[in-house]
Please model this.
Amino acid sequence: MSTHTTLGAGENNHHGKSRLAGNRLERRVFLAGGGLLAAGLLGYPLLRRAGGAPQPVFLARSQRYDGSLARTIQNGLEAVGFDFGGVRGQRVLLKPNLVEPHASSPHMTTHPAVIHAAAEVFRRAGAEIRLGEASAHLRDTELVLVESGVDELLRSEKIEFVDLNYAEAQRVPNAARTSRLREFYFPKAVLEADLIVSLPKLKTHHWAGFTCALKNLYGLLPGMIYGWPKNVLHHAGIPETIVDIAASARPTIAIVDAIVCMEGDGPIMGSPKPMGLIAIGLNPTAVDATIARIIGFCPEKVPYLALADGRLGPIAEDAILQRGEPWQALVSPFAILEQPYLQAMRAG
Model:
């Protein structure tokens, strides 16, 4: 068994305080500017009334797993207006995609190098780091960590890991009610976090079209309650529950591992697609919409993005502020299954 800490039932609240109802005002320190605050922090109801605000998305090309990823992430967060001073002493939960890892398949899960770089950046800013995941397919968490290569990272960097599949959970209302689900059971580690960082692997998805920053949040919910692979959520509607989870689990920002991606029959059976990209944004909806355009999808035709538009953030191109590389120069359509509902999501 690894030397990192895996939290389960009975974990204590941070500094003896509950994070479940309070600390909403404290969270505003993460975002710079009133528009970013309204769109990325204060939650679904206010954003719906406000109609959204322009959101910055940073794109970096020519990235490698053995490159200077921490510098790229630092620069990207600065470019989108992240306030590093606001995370000092705060609890940051890093949420990678470790759905069904294989050490020889860098296109399957979030690469340890990206996780390491993100942890370094937030630690340098004075944040308390945790890594959390509820793998959707494998119930053996130790196997997931070893096969993904994350176990070695946790040991060497002394990063605390929270097994979200088995951690103590608490019921919270569904903030968006896009699906029929009235509530969610979130692990306490999720509810106690001052900031959630979605660290997805960019992949096609045989039901959702593709999986990126928003779909990655499925892994916040425990398999002990929602099953493997989260069939309760699937039956309630994948587009609808993607929106509902994102609305109920905020504040969340996105750092996307799109260096080696997956195309074809994703998110498990697809083929590697090298892209060399890192994408960063304070609003996951804007990030996903930008990624959609790069990989050949029309955001307005992707059901979960159409539902998220104006609720969680903007998807229109003119409502997203470009930072770093222009997305048009990065377009490389991903292969997808020959299914009518997937083909209907294509751009053009």
Summary: Residues 112-124 form the longest helix (13 residues). Residues 6-343 form a domain with the Rossmann fold fold (CATH 3.40.50.11440). Residues 1-51 have pLDDT under 50 and may be disordered. The first strand starts at residue 6 and ends at 7.
